[in-house]
Design goal:
Blueprint (H helix, E strand, L loop, with lengths): L7 H13 L5 H10 L6 H7 L11 H7 L4 E10 L5 E9 L4 E8 L4 H11 L8 E4 L7 H9 L3 E4 L9 H13 L9 H17 L24 E8 L3 E8 L1
Parallel strand pairs: 1-4, 4-5
Antiparallel strand pairs: 1-2, 2-3, 6-7
Helix pairs in contact: 2-3, 5-6
């Protein structure tokens, strides 16, 4: 025996409701329609609803956007020296405002050393809620214990998916293009001095598209009406010249 006929108006309403709420299942739509005084069966909704190709679960990008203020990311990159030694640089990046909250350099990275850097990066009440990292073995048991003791939840990227840690990867790319590709590093102390100077420039002068063309440490707009625009040369570790502009 055939069930009651559903009008085209109700079918259109079902399609509209399902398209506007892609995470809703059929029983939810049935319940919403019932609250409007419209009685339909679950099978009817199944036939009429719009099937979205997008996954109902939040995307990775949505997660990053939702927790941007509570999320920091870490990653290593390597720098060769003039004597063919390889130095490892750890960068700790706060997603909000793209600030590099901590960095350090070592020739022999370990899980214990890496865990100590997280403690130094976040003293007292500045501990983030989430820490985003890849699955490198350097983040071993001792590192994980340090992070857990600080009540930080680790978020791991998928294997061979550096795009999931895109913010810190982009910062590392900027460090190379703006600075390290233009200098010859002598030793660990020299590299620390170069990076310290670069991050001063990065935080206070370098503009970022994602920040509305502002710098991580926001600086006010200074129109030409306030004075003459002149060229400003900032020396980084006495080797590389970073060019900027200021009002004289």
């Amino acid at each position: 025996m055939a069930g009651p006929t559903v009008s085209e108006e109700i079918k259109a309403l079902i399609r509209k409701m399902s398209a506007a709420n892609i995470s809703w299942c059929s029983p939810q739509i049935v319940g919403e329609l019932r609250k409007l005084g419209i009685e339909v069966t679950k099978s009817t909704v199944e036939k009429c609803r719009v099937r979205s190709r997008r996954p109902p679960s939040p995307t990775w990008k949505a997660f990053l956007n939702n927790y941007v203020r509570d999320l920091v990311a870490i990653d290593y990159f390597v720098v060769p020296t003039v004597r063919n030694k390889v130095l490892f640089v750890l960068v700790v990046l706060a997603h909000h405002r793209r600030r590099v909250v901590h960095f350090n350099v070592t020739e022999h990275p370990t899980a214990r050393w890496t865990g100590q850097q997280i403690i130094e990066a976040f003293p007292w009440d500045t501990v983030p809620k989430y820490l985003l990292r890849d699955r490198d073995s350097i983040y071993g048991n001792q590192f994980q214990k340090r992070v857990q003791s600080m009540d930080i939840e680790e978020m791991l990227t998928a294997p061979r998916s550096p795009w999931q840690n895109a913010f810190v990867e982009r910062v590392i790319g900027s460090i190379r293009r703006d600075c390290l590709d233009r200098v010859v590093v002598l030793n660990e102390r020299h590299l620390k001095r170069i990076l310290t100077s670069y991050f001063d420039y990065y935080h206070h002068w370098r503009t970022h598209l994602s920040l509305g063309m502002d710098s991580p440490e926001s600086r006010s707009v200074r129109p030409p009406a306030l004075g003459k625009v002149v060229h400003n040369q900032k020396s980084v570790a006495y080797i590389i010249i970073m060019n900027g502009w200021r009002l004289d």
